[in-house]
């Protein structure tokens, strides 16, 4: 059983894909997908020795060493063109780190069909990075697990033209306005309202920045006129 978060990441992996899971602590995602018969083979890449060893042990104990190769490598250095990787998942890291990993291996992405990304924060920076590097977002998902909100961004090669609202809230998520999306942004608005209440009246510029952020949330939640 994998977490709901990884379950949703897995749901965007096409049947028969050759997967590279970057930052594959425990190799949970590749193991789940291979065991279900959803994919034939995968590479689990990990840069830190401890999590790499956990991934190796787990793949061995599931009897999957023929189908899942665990590689100690930094980011996209875990694969070569000959591996014919078609899908890359990068989950459970900061959005900025995910963008750095992609940027460092940008030339290798030309042959990859789909990126499935689950940043723990800075989703806006990751969306901007995708736009600036020849990717379009084709789907998004949002979930809540153990009191935390997670966004999943699925991208493929292509062009997109994101508005400021799309960048911050997600081009799909901001149109769907799901109950979880509403919860996430109502919570964020409450935090910003509190922060605003702590700023003295005389700091007008600082107050305005927060007020604008709150207003943008209200607009996306259709709470303002
Ligand atoms: C919080 S864990 C997430 C594990 C799993 N992907 C998940 O979503 O549950 C992040 C993992 O990414 C690994 N990691 C961080 N930077 C990396 C990089 N540049 N290349 C490969 N792995 C990396 C860390 O060592 C850690 O094991």
Count of distinct structural domains: 2
Reading off the top of the CATH hierarchy, the class of the largest domain is best stated as: Alpha Beta
The rounded Rg comes to 19 Å
Please, what is the average pLDDT?
A: 97
By secondary-structure content and strand pairing, the structural class works out as alpha/beta
Strand content: 15-25%
Globally, the shape reads elongated
Organism: Streptococcus taonis
InterPro entries: SAM-dependent_MTases_sf, TrmK
Pfam family, one: TrmK
Protein name: tRNA (Adenine(22)-N(1))-methyltransferase TrmK
Kindly describe this structure:
It holds the Pfam family TrmK. InterPro entries: SAM-dependent_MTases_sf, TrmK. This is tRNA (Adenine(22)-N(1))-methyltransferase TrmK. The protein is of the alpha/beta class. The chain has 2 domains: 4-160, 3-Layer(aba) Sandwich (Rossmann fold), CATH 3.40.50; 181-222. The chain is built from 9 helices and 7 strands. It has helices at residues 4-11, 28-35, 49-61, 95-104, 123-132, 164-169, 173-176, 179-197, 204-220; strands at residues 18-22, 41-46, 68-72, 87-93, 114-119, 135-145, 148-157. Strands 3-2-1-4-5-7-6 form a 7-stranded mixed beta sheet, with helices on both faces. Helix 1 crosses helix 2, helix 4 runs parallel beside helix 5 (123-132) and helix 8 (179-197) runs antiparallel to helix 9 (204-220). The chain binds S-adenosylmethionine. The site of S-adenosylmethionine has 16 residues, from strand 2 and strand 4.
